[in-house]
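Practice set, problem 2.
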Amino acid sequence: MAGRSCPVSCVLVRATGVSCLAVLLCCLLAVQDVAGQKRRSARQGAGASSQEFARLAAQAAEAREAGRIDEAIEFYQKAVRLRPRWDEGWWYLATLLYDRDRYAEAARAFERAAALHPQAGIAWAMLGLCEFQLRQYDAAFAHIQRGRELGLVQNEELLRVLKYHEALLFLLKGDFETALQRLDVLANQGLNTEELIMALGLALLRIPILPSQLDPTSRDRELIRRLGWAELQAAQKNFTDAQREYERIAAEYAKTPNVQYAYGRYLVSRRDDDKALAAFKREIENSPQNGLARLQIAYIKLKNREPAEGIPFAEEAVRLNPRDPLAHYILGRLLFDLGQTARAIESLETARTLAPQEPKIYFALARAYARANRRADAEQAREMFLKLNKAVEEAENRGLKRADAIQEEPEKAPERSQ
């Protein structure tokens, strides 16, 4: 076992702070994904391949197990040239190259391993991690997502690494809510690194860059770190420390864009609606074009059964972000609660057009159609809700669900229209 290379050592040690022992265990679990192919590959080599291939394969394994990584890489490269469909060889070559920070070569090797076994999630995931190191972020995002969707054979350490990098990619793409959701989960699980803190702060301030891309001399660096630390405390349930720091930041950076919004978001999570409303209103004063702050106010009014007070904020949110399905959805629900069913249906149908895979929109539409005595439409919306909600629940159970700026309680199926 000693000397065996780990495919995720750089990621785990440098980015997430997992111990070297955990890295080794992660590697051994990862290798199990291709272990089923090992015996078949060996038998095929003995019977169908040349003696040269058998010699190279044996030398590669001996060098790898002895920790002579560069020598093992050379033997594996020669062996896979002789037998291009040797899946075990491509896997070990890829992991060894990754361990040597030779990411471009590792990516090509993982790509070959994935092509040989397209249902092996770990190969796609490792390809994505290589592409992340190569700054090929769109490809990295697609392949990490594909790997997670296919599954990673209960490899918790590798899954943790992938969640972390996936969160960074959501941050880079500007999906700040999903980035925060993923980062908060990792923080809650005990991850506590400087890079994580900076990523949390960047997401809260809605700055779409990676922590590594932040200028060390940036005047915002202290604010980013303080916000990230406050959110880290909140995610780890240290609410007294989180509250104290959020309050200090909100006072010291009272006019900085997105600070009051971040504070309001925290207060919503603590169910302090009055203070949250005040924070969101201060954000609007600081940033008059901030539609999200208006949407948060509108939703608080919706929760508190004050639709008349919420509608102006939702309408402003729609005006500022006409392509935001969440804004149309919240407006539709407020209108429904106020008894303006026709307008509610219009807003909810717009939301459906913008987000046709979002189940809660169909839930709201089913209720609105039923009130309007549109029974067939209500039943169709109800069936779509049930279908889509099942898919969302499955994605949530696997940690793949994306987050919205507003987190609602799960809906039950609306009653059938009578």
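Problem 2, part (b): a different protein.
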Amino acid sequence: MSQMKAIIITENETIQHSLIEILEAHEIEAEVNIEWKRSFAQANYTFYFIDYKSLKMIEEFTAPASSFIIGMSSERSFDEGRAWMRAGAYDVVVYPDEQSRLNDIISSVKGKVEKQKESFGDTTFGGGQVNAFYSAKGGSGKTLMASMIAQSLQIHHDKRVILIDLSAQFGGLETVYGVKDSRSYLDLQPVMQELSLNHIENVATKDEETGNYILLGPANPAKAEETSEELITKIIRTCRAHFDHVILDLPTAINTISFAGLNEATKIHYILNPDSLSLRSYKHANALFERFQLGNRGSLSILLNRVHPKSELGQKDVSKLIGKEIDASIRSDYFALQPYLNLGDSFYKKEKDKGQFKPAKDVRSYVEKVLL
């Protein structure tokens, strides 16, 4: 009997019996349940077969990134297809019209799993959380917040983390980490169709001080135009399968790159400043989020950055004006922070390091409250 296991989540008995029969033919052990349970996210299932009705009932869908989600749909629908894409589905089968495709899908997945074992042995793959840092206002501090949070996750909680700089035109992460590398994710374009962890690691830079992997953008406006949504999506999904946290530093503009990042995110961290310009930008961005159903089901977190006693607005004022709770406030401490940025130095040195300045302490608390 194969070590592979599958779980089927649907109330439809016809689909249940059909899937069990097909899976048994492939020597895959199957379990059936009519509703999603949080414990399923921690279980070692290779396949998650879920129908659309069940997906809609799940408040926050998470499954191990090393697993393969197969959506079961009753009709061809753009909205359903988009929902499955956001859930990270490997494929979607229209039942019963496309039932015959299941054998090919299962065989394909089995081949991928065997190839992964050959390349990486029995390594446990990452939990696949994708954290996107975004702000519609430039200069809000999202690159800094993304970097500090990535370092805290790795140093304080021993998570495997990769940062992807999606600010393709001008970059930013290379300055925070003091990285000098001419390679970028555009170098992955030729191998996009067979993208693997080996390709990612060959292009990414590992920061020895923090342990973070950093995947830089081209930092070139002309080359940024060559970046496709398909490439960004494949990179994120490949990283999801091998890292505990994928941190995306998104550009301010809503374009192909930023939309792909927002669409793939399991959590969107909106960086807000306590001033009227930042609030105005947030309201425009929030309208867009609602229109495209981004950050729904509790996946949007609001981080108030650069809070100071002399700020134009306080946390309660901001919360009241935008009609949403602020998840955390990061205090302003420019002069203490500046030397770390100038030297490309890490913000934390060891596991018990609470942070040597106010923002570092606040960020560590935010990580423990929101990301773990």
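Answer key, part (b): The chain has 14 helices and 13 strands. The first helix runs from residue 13 to 25.
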